[in-house]
């Protein structure tokens, strides 16, 4: 539970000494930006997280920002969180690691919401949105970075709005804060439409954020979210925006390297009753499990892709972790993108497969063209990790090092982890055949695509197939 109240004002005379230093340091940056609002309205957790409460953010301050008419920046409400960083320095929430290291998770969240005419107080729903993201971070220990995206799948304010997903970027006004317990950055939540999220997945989040900054009604320079926005940037400027995205995908590819998905695979070249079958289809028994080493390898790969919170606090959340400081070589490596090599564990047998059937739900299936066009054609790899079991399907290109799938044996399994190596020529052909996967019409599933000479089949199936114990 939470309540709304005026903040006490950390800078008030006589109060500075009783305020925790981490909290006081963030308040100081807020006072620099809003000197005329020393006591903003706050949403505060009634029972603090460190006392067993459900909300990780102790406070969320809400300021009125007048914008800048000369820059076409609209008046808006500015929300700032307190709690993802170390506010107290006494290990009650975060472990202290030093003044020159990230404080807690190293960031706080912000959100800029367009102020509607006649509004005298900020809506409080963004505070619950921020608490939801904070719960994901605390429970998964996956941090956010600028350019990450969040697949939310419902309007952020539970209305009929088209703004149903989020991108993350640096807050344009708040500067990093050096506290006694480490460094705090400020990451701003930016509400986006489904088409904009998909473009971020196919290309990258930073590219879409740059496009949003150029369109005043879609966010403008400070990326202010307008829940009443009825058009995507591609509808506002159909040719220019889509052309820039298409060119970006063609020249740079996608830096989304994995998704949590509803997926499965079957070895069609092996009888189902084979005792050594390591497929993950559960029939009367629990699926074989990945080794700890394999699980860690895939988890590390997925840190750069879409993560899902198994506690159902949030829908899938991305965690892109590409190195933006250096250009990506066309020659990728599974080993280079994880803390451990992808070379299979010596004690687990890797087996070659002659004939394979891949199964995806509709949402996962729509990402297969992204996998092929944005990743494999750029010499990279892409992983689908099952959210209902230990199944993992990794597509790799000819340029990826460290794969246990080879040109001679392009389908190889390591327990329930399948790797599929595809040539550029075959990828181009698959893209043509899979063209209608970008549609979301439920009446068109199940769908089946088959390449008999390659002994490969892909089926797009209803969610219910994967929710069933028998898959």
Automatic annotation (TrEMBL):
The keyword Ribosomal protein does not apply. Residues 53-229 form the Suppressor of fused-like domain. The keyword Nucleus applies. GO terms for cellular component: cilium; cytosol; nucleus. Belongs to the SUFU family. Its main location: cytoplasm. Keywords: Acetylation, Cytoplasm, Developmental protein, Isopeptide bond, Nucleus, Phosphoprotein, Ubl conjugation. GO terms for biological process: negative regulation of smoothened signaling pathway; negative regulation of transcription by RNA polymerase II; signal transduction. It is found in: Cytoplasm; Nucleus. Residues 322-334 have a biased composition (Basic and acidic residues). It comes from the Eukaryota. Residues 312-339 are annotated as: Disordered. InterPro entries: SUFU-like_domain, SUFU_C, SUFU_C_sf, SUFU_N, Suppressor_of_fused, Suppressor_of_fused_euk. Pfam families: SUFU, SUFU_C. This is Suppressor of fused homolog. Residues 244-460 form the Suppressor of fused C-terminal domain.
